[in-house]
Amino acid sequence: MSTYILGIESSCDDTSAAVLKDTHILSNAIANQDIHKTYGGVVPELASRAHQQNIIPVVEVALRKAKITKNQLSAIAFTRGPGLLGSLLVGTSFAKSFAMGLGIPIIEVDHLKAHILSHFIDDEDQKAHPQFPFICLTVSGGHTQIVKVDSPNKMKVIGSTIDDAAGEAFDKAAKIMGLPYPGGPEIDKLAKIGNPDAFTFPEPNMQELDYSFSGLKTSFLYFLRDRLKEDEQFIEKNKADLSASLQQTIIRILLKKLKKAASATSINEIAIAGGVSANSGLRQAMQQTSVELGWNIYIPKLQYSTDNAAMIAIAGYFKYLDGDFAAQNLTPYSKSTM
Ligand code: KG4
Ligand code: ZN
Question: Ligand 1 centre from 53 Cα, in Å?
């Protein structure tokens, strides 16, 4: 008998619901919150309110697209954390009540583990899945981690950022340049027409497998402040070159430690996940490195790179197989537990 999991994601500013039939994707509906563009970043109070407005319509769309009724659902998986508490409360409370009404179990999912497990979503264009053990570089707006993945439910963080996440580096640099939020996709677009060697920014000298991005942000800020003194139009004239150079620096920093991790663990199954894995420069650099070093690489489809509920549903599916269900009295957490 097939298992139907409804996944619910509400950790930040996207409200998403998805249905999987075992590992196969049936639907993945997302409501983005444009309101935050006005403020240049996510405003937590507005995000919770928008989730409250969107959650039921998004779930309805997911069920309709999946062509199933709510009574066919086997369980409901939801993001417990990390993320914005008010936003997480909306998804958690919805999942609890809906599951109680249907008399089915709930499954709590860690958002970061779900990004990694997005590689196991069976989709027409995503058929190859990493073999265990594999290394995953998770790069999102809030986290940057190198994770050794032994099984769907056994993962170990072997490197992480000590300050800003890679996505934050993109977003903050974009804000400094006056680009709209979220800045990552904007920089990616501009980088395509810029010269990555036009400017040089310093790379941190971190121990072991750890990352740091706050120094890069500061040097970018000081560099622009000095240039703007000479030419008020400096950013406007050099947007593309600045984007390409910054993006190249971030990718170099990310790949340096990823290569180190692969060599230290002697693992050549290498995946990337999280919003920044949508970056076209990073995807290209992964392809090149796979040829150079003989890696088998796994890059999620774009819709599974950024926040989505399909990844919550697949993570929930693995827990469902283990009978790992959550209690009705659990509460969300804002900080990573990985
Ligand atoms: O995983 P995600 O959707 O949400 C979090 O869990 O944080 O990641 C969001 C981050 C943002 O910082 C956004 O700027 C970045 O992913 N991002 C990108 C691209 N698309 C999204 N960064 C660089 N290039 C992109 N194409
Ligand atoms: Zn995420």
Answer: 23
Q: In this predicted model, what pLDDT tens digit does every residue of 155-214 receive, in sequence order?
A: 999 999 999 999 999 999 999 999 999 999 999 999 999 999 999 999 999 989 999 999
pLDDT tens by residue, 84-142 = 999 999 999 999 999 999 999 999 999 999 999 999 999 988 778 999 999 999 999 99
CATH class of 134-299: alpha beta
pLDDT in tens, 230-279: 999 999 999 999 999 999 999 999 999 999 999 999 999 999 999 999 99
Domain boundaries of the chain, sorted by first residue: 4-124+304-321, 134-299
Architecture of domain 4-124+304-321: 2-Layer Sandwich (3.30)
- Which residues surround ligand 1 with Cβ inside 6 Å? 12, 140-142, 167, 170-171, 182-185, 188, 274-276, 278-279, 306-307
Closest residue by Cα to atom 14, ligand 1, is 184
Separation of alpha carbons 15 and 33, rounded Å: 8
Q: Which atom of ligand 1 is nearest to the CA of 280?
A: 26
Against a cut of 0.85, is the pTM above it? yes
Q: Which residues contact 58 (CB under 8 A, 6 or more apart)?
A: 15, 16, 17, 29, 30, 31
Query: Comparing 4-124+304-321 with 134-299, is the CATH topology the same?
Result: yes
d(CA 233, CA 198): 17
Q: Dihedral sign, CA of 19, 106, 138, 13?
A: positive
